[in-house]
Amino acid sequence: MNCERAVYIQIADSIISAIKTGKLQSGAPLPGSRQLAIQLKLNRNTVIDALNVLLAEGWLISEERKGTFVAKKLPAFKETKPENPASAIQTVTKIPEIIFNDGVPDSRIAPIPELAGAYRQIFNRKGRWQMMGYTDSAGDFDFRNAITLMLNYKRGMRLTPEEILVTRGSQMAMYLTAHCILKQGDVVAVENPGYKPAWLAFEHAGATLLPINVDVNGIIVDELKAHLQTGKPVKAIYITPHHQFPTTVTLSLNRRLELIELSNHYGFTIIEDDYDHEFHFGQRPILPVSSIENIEHFVYIGSMSKIVAPALRIGYLASSKELIGKVGQLRRIIDTQGDNMMEQAVLQLINEGHIKRHLRRATLLYKNKRDIFEKIIKEHLGEKVDFRKPEGGLAFWLVPKKQTDMINLHKRLLEKGVQIMLPESFSYGEPVNGLRLGYASLSINQLEEGVKKIAKLL
Questions:
Q1: pLDDT score at 310
Q2: In this predicted structure, what is the pLDDT of residue 94?
Q3: How does pLDDT run across 358-400, given as a tens digit for each residue?
Q4: Each residue's pLDDT tens digit, 174-196
Q5: What's the CA gap between 427 and 26, in Å, rounded?
Q6: Which of 115, 137, 438, 443 fits 395 for a cystine, CB–CB 3.0-4.6 Å?
Q7: Could you tell me the CA-to-CA distances from 379 to 151, 356, 385, 451, 452 in Å, in that order?
Q8: Cα 36 to Cα 41: distance, rounded to the nearest angstrom
């Protein structure tokens, strides 16, 4: 198994190997994604990602209401015989038992039955006439209005529904924003370490990244200020100020105010990704930078994925009517509209109080698990790492007291059935010496077992 490759890629490669060696013949049916996930003891989304890769590359075909099959006409390849005939199967089954992700919620507690029921009701009540035509590319108006009320009431914003656009997840919001405000050669300042998928969206739009370091008070605004004072322009800055990704620190009030002052003076846009605002365990969440009254150039991005379930691809962005109009025009080119039915189903959950009750239960559960995880880390890693208990979010940030070869640690942990994120996945240039350990989706026993194995190798 290639320890440095994503699990879904390893699964896809193993199936390709089985096809090449004749273990899977052209036209042969594959088990469904749910069955495969059970067999491999994996999250179903990981299996679906692997199947999607194989479908896109032409190794598999999908027939409606029949299933997934090995394609009859396969991509060109040279037939090879594996050294070990069982290697393809072994590669697929060598899957980590404990995966420390970047902070994914526990999908087992998601209000899926309520969501499914609401979706069926909406479809039966409105499906016939709504499926006859398109709706607003910005999203269902009532749903946008509900998001507006939530942002204004709970996050101190001052928005109207016309300043909101619903997307298929926050990454789509990032991509649309990048392509509407950036052009070739523009400079975007980013946190380092930071969230690489956003960096890729900016680079795809032609931008050059300017890494700005992060400390215990968030992104170091003085570094950005020094760059601007040289006369070099910056078009935008991307930040995760509430619980910085990956370090979990909160951007201080002084730096927030100074950042807005710089933005207003130099005209660059603040792109704020508030990816896990809901899960804050202190007295109250810190209000977004975008809520500060004198801010002039901002894009605020949020998601419903962590509120309900990761598989629910509903995100949103808030900004000026002018920018929302541009984003809406681009969105119509690549995706005429979102999942209007799902938006209305989630709206029904909001109106019936299911979301509020779920968030209350989830917050208590995650707070309790965070406190237990802190004790586990102190017990087994207290002398080997520095860390601070996060005030919110679903992950811890650990810094080994000694410089550590993270690639080697990653490899050795995989051999023991534990997977961690490589620092390369959130570092610009030189990999940072740190570990981001998501805890929400793992059991207490898994958390303790995983930390014990990390402790033995550090």
A1: 67
A2: 54
A3: 888 988 999 999 999 999 999 999 999 999 999 999 999 999 9
A4: 999 999 999 999 999 999 999 99
A5: 42
A6: 438
A7: 40, 35, 11, 10, 9
A8: 8
The Cα 124–Cα 117 span in angstroms is: 11
Please name which of 452, 403, 392 lies closest in space to residue 250, comparing C-alpha atoms. 392
C-alpha closest to that of 400 among 429, 423, 416: 423
pLDDT value for 259: 98
> pTM value?
0.78
**3-state per-residue secondary structure call for 57-112:** HCCEEEECCCEEEECCCCCCCCCCCCCCCCHHHHHHHCCCCEECCCCCCCHHHCCH
Cβ 272 vs Cβ 297: under 8 Å: no
Q: Cα separations (Å) of 153 from 20, 102, 149, 342, 356? A: 57, 29, 6, 23, 14
* pLDDT score recorded for residue 342: 82
The two structure tokens encoding residue 386: 């520095």
* Residue closest to 421 by CA, chosen among 107, 2, 3: 3
Q: Which residue has the tokens 């050294």?
A: 83
CA distance 357 to 365: 12
Tokens describing residue 369: 């698990």
Tokens of 275: 């990816």
Token output for 25: 């013949």
Other Cβ atoms closer than 10 A to 225: 14
Sign of the alpha-carbon dihedral angle for 108, 110, 114, 118 = negative
Name the one residue in this structure whose structure tokens are 């930390």: 451
Torsion of the alpha carbons at 423, 429, 430 and 435, rounded to the nearest 10: -20
Residue holding tokens 């961690």?
420
The answer to whether 249 and 214 are in contact (CB under 8 A) is: yes
Low-confidence stretches of the chain (pLDDT beneath 70): 1-6, 56, 64-65, 75-94, 126-135, 309-311, 337
In this structure, the number of other CB atoms found within 10 A of the CB of residue 458 comes to: 17
Residue 417 exposure: Cα atoms within 13 Å on the Cβ side: 10
